[in-house]
TrEMBL record:
<keyword id="KW-0328">Glycosyltransferase</keyword>
<dbReference type="InterPro" id="IPR035595">
    <property type="entry name" value="UDP_glycos_trans_CS"/>
</dbReference>
<protein>
    <recommendedName>
        <fullName>Glycosyltransferase</fullName>
        <ecNumber>2.4.1.-</ecNumber>
    </recommendedName>
</protein>
<dbReference type="GO" id="GO:0035251">
    <property type="term" value="F:UDP-glucosyltransferase activity"/>
</dbReference>
<keyword id="KW-0808">Transferase</keyword>
<dbReference type="Pfam" id="PF00201">
    <property type="entry name" value="UDPGT"/>
</dbReference>
<dbReference type="InterPro" id="IPR002213">
    <property type="entry name" value="UDP_glucos_trans"/>
</dbReference>
<dbReference type="InterPro" id="IPR050481">
    <property type="entry name" value="UDP-glycosyltransf_plant"/>
</dbReference>
<comment type="similarity">
    <text>Belongs to the UDP-glycosyltransferase family.</text>
</comment>
Amino acid sequence: MGHLIPMVEFGKLILHHHPSFSVTILLVPPSFNTGSTAAYIRHISTTVPSITFHHLPLISLELDSFPSTAAVIFEVHHRSNPHIRPTLETISLSATISAFIIDIFCTCALPIGAELNIPTYYFIISGASDLALLIHFPTLHNATTKSFRDMNTLLHVPGIPPIPSSDMSKPMLDRNSMDYENFLNVTKNLPNSAGIIVNTFERLVTKPLKAIREGESNPGGRTPPVFSVGPLLASEDLHGRGHDCLNWLDKQPCKSVVYLCFGSLGLFSAAQLKEIAVGLERSGQRFLWVVRSPPSDDKSKRFLPPPEPDLDSLLPAGFLNRTKDRGLVLKSWAPQVVVLNHESVGGFVTHCGWNSVLEAVCAAVPMVAWPLYAEQKLNRLVLVEDMKVALRLEVAEDGFVAAEEVERRVRELMESEKGREMRKVIEEKSVEARAAMREGGSSIAALGKLVELWKRA
Ligand SMILES: *[C@@H]1O[C@H](CO)[C@@H](O)[C@H](O)[C@H]1NC(C)=O
Ligand SMILES: *[C@@H]1O[C@H](CO)[C@@H](O)[C@H](O)[C@H]1NC(C)=O
Ligand SMILES: *[C@@H]1O[C@H](CO)[C@@H](O)[C@H](O)[C@H]1NC(C)=O
C-alpha cells in the first residue's frame, strides 16, 4: 500500500492538471497481505475511471524460502518481467505511451522501456535525502570492501548530514546478502532513466536536491533530471470519516493528544508494547495509540497479516481502565490523515516511514522519531538534524526502548520549549507544502515540465 497509494495519487495529479492523458497502472500480483490492496483498487477503479489497472498474471512462490520481504518483492517483479513488454505493446496498439514510470522494485523493466523507445522514469516513494543516498550508493560501495554494518563510522554523502554506517537501510547493511545485491543493481540503474520523479517538494529539504542536480551524488556519471511533484498523500482514508476515534478526538482539548502509529509493517514485541504503555501512562499526556499484534513466532506466518490484537493480554493489567479518561487505544488501524489533521492532535510518535512523515508535515504535527525498517533511520537523521521537526528517541542496540525514554520524549514533545519550536518550523513547512501543490507552485510546475517532455516525445 505504501508504494501503490503515492503512485495512484500521482496518476490522479496528472489527470487533474492534464486531462488529455490517460493512466494505466500495471500491478504485479500481490504475494502477501493482499486484502487491503484489493479493496483499495476497487475503490479507485470506481471513483477514478480514467485510471485503468492492469493485473499481471499470478505467480506462485514458496514464501518460506525467501530471506526477506524485499527478496520476495524483487522475485515477483523479476518473474513478472516477461509480461511487461507484451503488455506495453498491446497498450500501444490503441494509444501512444508517452512515459513509462517505474517503482525502484521494477528496475528489471528499465531496459524494456529503452527497447520500445518509451522514456522511462523512476518514481521514488521516499524523500530527496533517500534519493541522494541511493544515487551515491555505488560510489559508497566502491569505496570499501566491508559491509556497512561492520564499519562503525560516519558516511559522508553529498546533501545529507553525516550518516552512521549502521543507519543505512537494512537491505544495504550486509554486503553479502541478496537484498544488497538487488539494491546495488537498482542504484546503478537510477542514472540510466529519463528522469526521477520524487514524492517531496522543493522547499522541504533543499540540500539533497541541490547535490543531485549539481552532479555531486554521482561523480563522473550521468545525472538525470529530478522532478519533485509532492506531497502526494492518501486523499481517501477508505473508512476514515465517521471513525469512532474522531468523536473521541472531538472531546479533547486543542493540540493536547499525542498520536502513536508505526505503519503497516511496524510490529513490536509484547514486552515492548508493555513498555510503551507504562511510558505513556507515566507521561500524563493524552494519547491515541494504534496497537498491532506482535510478530508471530511461527516463521510460516511471517508474511500473513497479524491477527487482531488482544489488548487485555498485551497491555499491563488495568492500563486501559486507568487511562480511559485521557487515552484511546485502537486495534491495528487508524484513519491517519484525518487523525493528524484533527485539531486535538499535537504530536506524533512515528516509525518515520516517508508517507507518514509527509502526512505529519502537511498536518503541521511535530514528531518523535522511532525508526523501524527500510530507510527510516535516514529519515530520522533528516527530521532531527536537517528539518528540526522531530525529537530523537534513544533506542538500545537491540532496538528496545525503555518506558522512561517513552515518557521523557512524549513529555518533551508536548510540553517543552523545544517542542514548541519544532511546531513553529513544521507549521511553516506545511504552508510551503500547500503552496507547492497550488497552480504555479513548484510541484505543479515540475509536473508541467514533465508533461511538456511527454508531449514532445
Ligand atoms: C539489474 O538490472 C537490470 C536492469 O537494468 C536487469 O536487467 C538485471 O536483471 C538486474 N540484475 C539483477 C541481478 O537483478
Ligand atoms: C565502481 O567500480 C566499478 C568497477 O571498478 C566501476 O565499473 C564503476 O564505474 C564504479 N562506479 C562508481 C560509481 O564509482
Ligand atoms: C477501574 O478502576 C476503578 C478505580 O479507578 C475500579 O473501581 C474499577 O473496579 C476498575 N474496573 C475494572 C474493570 O478493572
